[in-house]
């Protein structure tokens, strides 16, 4: 934790240790402009396709293409619509065919310039074209920088559920430019911040306390922002290195996500109503309150977690989602379809307090249902 | 080679050694009827989706479903059209959604009952639903038994080229029922036999000589058939174990395939004109003649390879493909788009004689072009 006390302006590097699939995450300002040089130095001779969305393209694509060109990297851009709907079979096929049409080879790269949507789709494409090409991530949302840039999960959504189709495919390099986050809306920044808070709540109580002190500076930019991102990447990398394929400890990263995914599904992934990080924020608050109800966690810790999320402008209750209308049965279906279901019993991430989350493998669906009914009744009252 | 001299009627097992991804291939008669028991014993408690094609469904699906049911395995069938066109994005999406709709979990299985088309598609589906489910192969064509059942390659075609999209996903178990091959057309049996011959031509001259003596018995059925399949699986497994991700020695398995794929593409994958194994047979003959022309291989060995393929009813020259019309430029484009291209130089599998194939990494495209022009001129003459 020493690093957290003395943030520096220098660029940080987090190494994700996965044997021959190990890679570096560079974190700091100016990395889009430096991308060409960094990529050319580490992956000499590659050609690339840059996949991005229309919003990010307007703001940052020109800078990236200039940087790649001046480093001598032959790259073709592909601009997709912004939004979760882009994680579809249709866009997958379109992007795959574009990469093949650009005659890229196995050693060439798909470069994702965008948030988690672009990262997940592009990583999947890189994982399946020619059974695996190189993948470079330039995450431009806070959420993508602290979450999807570590772990190698890629994929798309099915009409039947989120992230149900994909592969594990590790990037060769991640460039997290903290400066590009300045163009991100406050709402999207806060959504990403929910995942930062998550690492504190899982098993880093000191980090959580540091976040309580430095939240405003992180939102404003500056060295605390890079430090918060680096610590988040270290936190996730530590879990992933211990458990690359998500059978054991990695499940902890789902804190807030079982409830969160069910809420996202009930909103039909309508980002006007709820974005992923907001679902996670509500989900984490629910996980803490459910843990209190089960006698696992004391009430003060749950309140402390909620207060911090609220101070960051994040929702913590289902009734804060505009539009309403969440029948318990529908949420339970969402939870049942979640990847974490295993033969009838539910696996939930519960907690014994701030930084003391654990994997509960035998949660009674009836207890979850009763808890949700009370949460919704409280909202209606 | 002792095993080859004394074939037995007993079921054979070939172990594919890939560390924690190791699996068994069982080879022998009656394995469709025994599938339920074998799967239930090795993968207790699983549920499954059986993916097959309409032709195979008519002949063998009922027997498999009965076997699964009597072993207590809850399985849903999905019947797709027969033929190479089924290896498409459209069928991929359809199958993925069907597997999700059946509410199968990660530990459950996709069972492929069919030839290489069904195996490749189903394996890809198993590799991407929930980022990887179990996969059981029940290959019903000779080609699928001796080739696609070993190695973990899965995938679909792009309109721009064959097998350009997919993943490596190893099966948990392969059941190669030698009896189901009795319903295969002689043409399809011969096409699969081309891959059997390939293992002899790559690096098993004794196996090639054994095939020369036992070809008729293999086509007729009986213990020599199971032995030829087992030896083919051992040959491929040895290469794959040494090189799971296909960068080095595994390239040898492409003997005949660079030419073969170009011919298949030029025929627009029209199986009335050319099936995969026929393309490979012509491709192997071309590889031998090209090697003779380059002064690498003596003419007798090339003739011996051709004679054996012809005796099996396989084509060895481009002009044997009905419909004709193979401009050299089109074949060269097919070769250039092949996965084995690497920055302008061509990689080909050439040979110094029967069982002495090697990877040539620096083949001059002009030499290939001149050779093909002569082959086609010879045909026209
Ligand atoms: N692979 C993983 O491990 C992982 C982890 C967490 C989340 N995810 C996935 O990530 C997705 C959510 O990520 P997200 O929140 O980044 O979504 P997103 O990619 O949709 O980005 C959110 C919005 O911000 C915009 N945006 C991105 N960068 C910007 C910038 N610098 N300036 C201005 N606007 C910008 C985008 O255009 C988009 O409209 C979900 O699909 C989720 O499933 C994946
Ligand atoms: N994954 C790999 O490693 C690998 C290796 C080699 C080939 N392949 C792929 O395999 C495919 C070719 O395989 P294939 O030749 O088996 O094609 P296929 O699956 O199309 O089968 C050929 C035909 O035989 C029929 N058939 C299959 N079993 C039968 C049976 N027992 N009785 C009667 N009819 C039967 C099928 O319905 C089909 O019409 C190609 O797509 C090729 O790319 C993959
Ligand atoms: Zn998340
Ligand atoms: Zn083949």
UniProtKB/TrEMBL annotation, chains A, B:
Compartments where found: Cytoplasm
Record: residues binding Zn(2+): 195, 257, 276
Manner of cofactor binding, per the entry note: Binds 1 divalent metal cation per subunit. Can use either Co(2+) or Zn(2+).
Organism the protein comes from: Aureimonas glaciei
Enzyme Commission number(s) from the entry: 4.2.3.4
Name of the protein in its database record: 3-dehydroquinate synthase
GO MF annotation: an example: 3-dehydroquinate synthase activity
Function according to Swiss-Prot or TrEMBL: Catalyzes the conversion of 3-deoxy-D-arabino-heptulosonate 7-phosphate (DAHP) to dehydroquinate (DHQ).
Lineage of origin: Bacteria, Pseudomonadati, Pseudomonadota, Alphaproteobacteria, Hyphomicrobiales
Pfam families in the record: DHQ_synthase, DHQS_C
Residues reported in the UniProt entry to bind NAD(+): 116-120, 140-141, 153, 162
GO BP term, pick one: chorismate biosynthetic process
């Amino acid at each position: 934790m020493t690093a957290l006390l003395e943030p520096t302006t220098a660029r940080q590097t987090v190494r994700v240790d996965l044997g021959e699939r190990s890679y570096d995450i560079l974190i700091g300002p100016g990395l889009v402009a430096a991308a060409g040089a960094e990529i050319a130095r580490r992956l000499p001779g590659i050609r690339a396709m840059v996949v991005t969305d229309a919003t990010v393209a307007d703001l940052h694509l020109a800078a990236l293409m200039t940087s790649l060109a001046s480093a001598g990297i032959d790259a073709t851009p592909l601009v997709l619509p912004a939004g979760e709907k882009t994680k579809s079979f249709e866009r997958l096929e379109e992007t795959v065919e574009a990469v093949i049409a650009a005659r890229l080879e196995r050693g060439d790269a798909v470069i994702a310039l965008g948030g988690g949507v672009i990262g997940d789709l592009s990583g999947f494409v890189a994982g399946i074209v020619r059974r695996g090409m190189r993948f470079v991530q330039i995450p431009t949302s806070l959420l993508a920088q602290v979450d999807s840039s570590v772990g190698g999960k890629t994929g798309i959504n099915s009409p039947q559920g989120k992230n149900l189709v994909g592969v594990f495919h590790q990037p060769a390099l991640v460039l997290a430019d903290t400066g590009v986050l300045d163009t991100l809306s406050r709402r999207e920044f806060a959504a990403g911040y929910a995942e930062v808070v998550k690492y504190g709540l899982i098993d880093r109580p000191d980090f959580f306390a540091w976040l309580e002190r430095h939240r405003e500076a992180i939102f404003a930019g500056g060295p605390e922002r890079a430090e918060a991102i680096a610590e988040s990447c270290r936190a996730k990398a530590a879990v992933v290195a211990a458990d690359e394929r998500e059978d054991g400890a990695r499940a902890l990263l789902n804190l807030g996500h079982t409830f969160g995914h069910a809420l996202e599904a009930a909103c039909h992934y309508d980002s006007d109503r709820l974005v992923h990080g907001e679902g996670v924020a509500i989900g984490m608050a629910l996980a803490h309150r459910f843990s209190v109800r089960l006698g696992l966690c004391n009430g003060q810790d749950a309140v402390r977690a909620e207060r911090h999320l609220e101070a960051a402008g994040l929702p913590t209750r289902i009734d804060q989602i505009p539009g309403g209308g969440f029948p318990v049965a529908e949420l339970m279906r969402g939870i049942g379809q979640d990847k974490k279901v295993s033969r009838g019993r539910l696996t939930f991430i519960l907690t014994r307090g701030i930084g003391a989350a654990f994997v509960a493998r035998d949660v009674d669906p009836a207890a979850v249902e009763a808890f949700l009914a009370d949460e919704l009744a409280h909202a209606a009252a």
